[in-house]
Amino acid sequence: MHKKQKRDIFLFILGGVVLYFISGMVDELRVYQGASIAVYVIAISSIILLTGYSGQVSLGHGALMAVGAYAAAVARIEFNLPIILCFVVAVLASAIGGALLGAAAARLSGPYLAGTTLALAIGLPSLANQFSVLGGEQGLLFDVGFPPLSLGEEFTQYKWFFWIAGLAALISMWVVKNILSSRYGRTWRAIRGNEVAAQLSGINIARSKILAFTISAGIAGLAGALLSMTIGTVSPSAFPLALSFSLLTGAVISGITTLSGAMIGAVVLVAIPEIADVVAHRIGSSEGVTTNLPGFLVSAILIVTVLFVPDGPVEQHRARSAKKLAHKK
Amino acid sequence: MKAMNRRKLITVSAVLAAVSLAVTAVPAQAAEVGVSSTEIKLGMTLPMTGTASLGYNKIPGAAKAYFDYLNANGGINGRKVTLVVKDDRYVPTEAVAKTNELILKDKVMALLAPLGTANVKAVAASVNPGRRGVPVLFVNTGFSGFADAKKYPTTYAVLPSYIMEAKVMGQYIKENFAGKKIGLLYQDDDFGSDALAGFKTAGVTFAVKVPYASGSQGAAAAAGWITKFKAAEADVVILFGVSSATSAMLGVAAQLKYAPQWMLGSVGGDATTIKLTGVPAGVLYNAIGFSPVPATTDMKDEYVKLFSDIYAKAVPGSTFDLNVLLGMNSAFMAAQALKAAGPNPTRKSLLAAIDSKGSTFANSALVPLGYSKTSHVGLTGYWVGKYSPTGDLSPIGGSYVTYTTDSGAGAVVKSTYVRPAMPAKGLPN
Questions:
Q1: Do residue B128 and residue A19 have CB atoms under 8 angstroms apart?
Q2: What is the CATH number of the domain that holds B331?
Q3: Strands B381-387 and B288-291, how do they pair?
C-alpha cells in the first residue's frame, strides 16, 4: 500500500475513534444532532463531487436522496433485508436513477441542467403519492431496529443512529476522496476546466459526466436512507425543494471544491436554527423574528461566503498558507 | 506540504465535530421534567413559515392567549403554564429535530397539538414519545390511527377522524338528498382513502368520483374537475380536500357559473382561509359544511364569546377563526388535564387523568369526547351547517343538530349530547 494511503486510513480510523468517544460524552440531543451532521456531510460531499469536480449543477439532490430513502424502506419492509443491505440497495437504486438523469444531463449544461434537476426535486417526491406500496402522503416507516443488547441497556437509539451515520460518513468520505484523487477525479477536473481541451486530450465527456452523476447520486441515496433512519419514516414531505437548496447552500459554505470542508457546511446547517433560537431568546423578540431568523442567518452566511471566501474557508486558508510559504521561499 | 495540509484539515474537521457536539450540562432534575414549583412547560411544533403555514400559524398565538389568561387567573395550582413553540415548516425531518429539542433541551413536560399526519408519525417513530413516556396531547390531524392507544400509548387525538366525517356526510345525504346524483372530489392518498372508507360504510353511491393528486390542485385542474361533474350531471358536489383544492374549485366554478349544491369537508372548509385566497364570500353561500365546535361567529355561545374576547385582547386585529378556536380549545383541555393530574402533576398522572376523566373535560365542542383507558379517540361527531352570504358557517335552522359516530362500522346517530356549562370564567375546575 502507498505510504500516503496508509496514513489516510490511519487518520480516518482516528476520526472514528474520536467520534466514538464524543458520542459517549454528550447528551442525547447532541448525539441526535451529530447524526444529522453526519448525514449532511455525506449529502454535501455528493454535491461537491458533482458540482465542484465535474462542474455539473444539481438543484435536485433532495429527489435523489428520496429515491435512496424509499428504496431502503421498501427493501426493509417488503423484503425484510438486514439494515446494511438496505443501505446498499439505497445506493444502487439512487445510482441507477442518477445514471438515467446523468444521461440526460450530459446533453445539458448551465441553466438548462439546473432547470431539469429543479423539476426533478419538485416532481419526484410527490410521485410517491401515486403508489400505495410507497405509503402515500404519510409515507413508510423505516425502522433500523434497536441497538444490539451487547452495547448495554443505557445505549440509546440516537447513539445507535449516530454510530451508523458516523461510520457511513467516514466510509463515504474515504471513498469519495479516493475517487477524486483517482484518474476519474482528474478527468472530471479537466472537463470542468475546459471541455474542449479535455475532449482533445481523449476524454469521453459524456461518459465521464454520466459517471459523475451516477456516483454522486449513489452517495446522495445513502444520505437519504440515513436521513430517513434518523426520523424513522420516509415521506414525500421529508424531501422538499428546500432540502435540495439547503444542501447546495451547505456545499457553497463548505467550499464547493473542497471535500474536507463538507463538515463546515453540515455543522452550519444543523447549528444555525439553534443559534438563531438562542439569539432570538436573548433579545426577547417576537414570534415573527424567531421563525424567520434561521432562514435569514443562513442566507446572510451564504452571501458573506460568496462575497469574501468564494472558494470556501478551507480553500481560502490553504491558498493563504501556500502564498505565505511561497514568500518564505 | 500537501500531506501536512490534509492532516491539518482532518484535524480541523475533528475539532469542528467536537465543537458541534459541545457538552451541555444537564441540570439536576426536579420531581418531573418540565414541572417546577412555579411553572409547567409545554411544547408545540407546527408550520409557522412556508406554504403550509397559512391559517395554522395562528394556533400558537391562540393557545398562548388562553394560557396567559389562565396564568393571570392563578395558573394551575399556582404554577403558570408556558408554551415553547418551534417551526417545523411542515417537514417531518424538522418536526423530529424540533421535537427532540423540545424534549431534550427545553425539557417540556408534554407536547401540545403537533400538526400534520406525516410529522406526527415521524415523531412517533423517531423520537418515540410513547417509550419516553412523554404525553402528546390533542394532535392536530384527523388521521384515525393516532387514536390507537396500543400503538401510540401517550398520544391523544382530538379532531374527529376523516372516516367519521364521511359517515356523517353520508347520513346527511341519505336524509336530505335521497335520489340526487352525488359527486365527490377527494385527495388521492390516505386522506382520501379514509373518506372513501367512511362513505362506503355510510352506503353512499356516487354518480362520479374525481380524485386529485396532492399538489396538483389549481385553477387549470379545477376546470377539468368541473367538466367531469357536469358530464355526470351531479346535483350535489362534495369537496373533501384541502383548503387550496376547495378554493380552486369554488373560484373557477364562480367564473364558469357552475353552481351545484356544494358540501364542504371541514379540512378545506374554513371560510377565513378560503376567502384569503381571493374567492368571493358569496360563492360559499348555501354550501353545506361540518364542524365539531360552535360557529366562530356565534357570540351567543359562551365559549366563543369568552375565547374571542381573550384573543382580541392578546392578538389585536387578528380574525377569530376556526384555527384560533381549535387552538384555544386544545389549550383549555390541556389546562383541565393538568389540573386533573393532581397538585404535583407528573407525566404519568397527566396520562392517567386523561384516561380516567378525559371524556368529561369541559370544552367548546358540541359533540362528546371519547377518551377512556382503552381509547384515545377525541371528538366523535359534527353538527351540520350552511354558509351565510358573508361566508360564515352557521347551523341550519338556527340550532345545532349534531351527529355522532365512530371510525368503524358503528351507526351515525343524532346526538342527544348536551354540552355541560362552561366552568366559571373558563378556568379549569
A1: no
A2: 3.40.50.2300
A3: antiparallel
